[in-house]
Amino acid sequence: MPRPRSAFRHTFLALLLALVVSGVLSSCQSMPDGLSVHAPLRPAEQLRILTDQTYQTAQGEEQIEQAIFDAAFALIDQAEKLVVVDMFLFNRFAGKDSYRPLSQQLTQALINAKQRHPAMPVVMITDPFNTLYGGVKAPELEQLRAAGVAVVLTDIDQLPASNPTWTSIWRLCCSYLGNSTDGGWLPNPVGEGKVTLRTYLHLLNFRANHRKTLVVDYGDDWRGLVTSANPHDASSKHHNSAIVFSGAAALDLLQTERATAQLSGYTPTDWPVAPAASDVGSMPQIQVLTEGAIERALLDLLASAQAGDQLDMEMFYLASRPVVKALIEARQRGVAVRVILDPNRDAFGREKNGIPNRQAAWDLKEKGIAVRWCATEGEQCHRKWVRLERTQGTTEVISGSANFTRRNLHDLNMETSVRLITQSDNPEIQAMRAGFERAWGNQDGATHSLPYSAFADHSYWRYGLYRFMEASGLSTF
């Protein structure tokens, strides 16, 4: 018989080998087929750029201006053939003092659509976080199922490991355990009640379908909406943006959602297919991008900026080292760069430590880039867009669900953004530009933004922590 010490050593080595193999498998996993899409440029028909914003007036009163979900509900209300929604946060978690019950409003809009047209497919794709990975009941999803709406919980276990350190352990110890809405003993991390340990173990993988899209028929055409906004009660005062468009690009968007539905076990029937790419013609032009294709288009945009161009950005999370480097290089080439960042302070009643934005902002500020902070009062500056105004008279925008972080850009999370190219005098671009100028300069005495000094953080410890978290995936951003 082997001695106890030798048996222990063999067992330990076997477990270590299993962990290494699991880690390699987790790190090498690629995006499923149909994801990381770089659709063709299409005519941007019926283009609209929408914003939600919350700010303080010159009299110190809170002002809330919203357009995104009003537009989304109007699109759903007129649909007769198909409604496909894909939304990351779709719940009332932490929403006790919310400005607006968006989760129930979207639920009712989808139920009404199904009742008006019982034969019309109405599909709600969402992330399993809304059930805390099977640990709580989701009233909105149950209502939708009862009304005949197809509810598709994204199979995020098919995505690459964004936190490979933990996912390699998860594969060995816990992935087969399932979950239950009964018998939890740990505090719900986002609301009332108790959840199981299995909820926390699943959460630590940090995988997500982070998309925020809508596709509907619109008369004889199709219309798509790509946004940074969630139908989440506690997020209903956030600053967000959206782009709405019609035509072939909307069918490109639908094709990306077909892939999401299929990898999650739902087989779409009678969904129209996007036409083959053709000569795009005149501006404006739009292109659907998902997952890693967003990063490639973003880095190309930043690299193309030349002296005299104006580059403006509003971002909830800025952490990606390639993006930070590209912004600095653009500034060094003579591009005028302005960045408005969320201070990463507010998180649904809890205070965060400012990572990663305050650390990335330090890098930018030291290289001469102008940085300001959203003047948030409990809400978040949740927009995720960049706009390049070229001296030749054209403007390029990338906007959507993707934060500029490793997790959101590097084929890990599921994301959808769009690339828009148009003349700089396009009325929608003019309105977008005016909105940024209003926020940057606090026009009319209102308070939209604060100077860099308001949240500057030059702690080397927190800077090192940011770099480690971004590189390793051991983070929530």
Describe what this molecule looks like in 3D.
The protein is α+β, with helices and mostly antiparallel strands and 477 residues long. It has two domains: 222 residues, Endonuclease, Chain A (2-Layer Sandwich), CATH 3.30.870; 188 residues, Endonuclease, Chain A, CATH 3.30.870.10. Helices cover 33% and strands 23% of the residues. It contains 13 helices and 21 strands. A nine-stranded mixed sheet has the order 1-12-20-19-18-13-14-17-21, sandwiched between helices. Helix 2 runs parallel beside helix 3. The longest helix is centred in the first third of the chain and has 25 residues. The N and C termini lie far apart (51 Å). The model has no long low-confidence stretch (mean pLDDT 93).
What would the CATH topology of the largest domain be? Endonuclease, Chain A
Percent of residues in helices: 25-40%
Give the end-to-end Cα distance, rounded to a whole number of Å: 51 Å
Query: Tell me about the biggest sheet?
Result: 9 strands, mixed
The CATH architecture of the largest domain can be named as 2-Layer Sandwich
- Give the structural class: alpha+beta
| Assembly type | single chain
Unreliable runs, pLDDT <50, ≥5 residues? none
Report the top-level CATH class of the largest domain.
Alpha Beta
Residue-averaged pLDDT:
93
| Order of the strands making up the biggest sheet | 1-12-20-19-18-13-14-17-21
CATH superfamily descriptor of the largest domain = Endonuclease Chain A
**What is the β-strand count?**
21
The number of domains: 2
Portion in strands: 15-25%
Radius of gyration: 23 Å
Principal-axes geometry comes out as globular
Individual helix count: 13
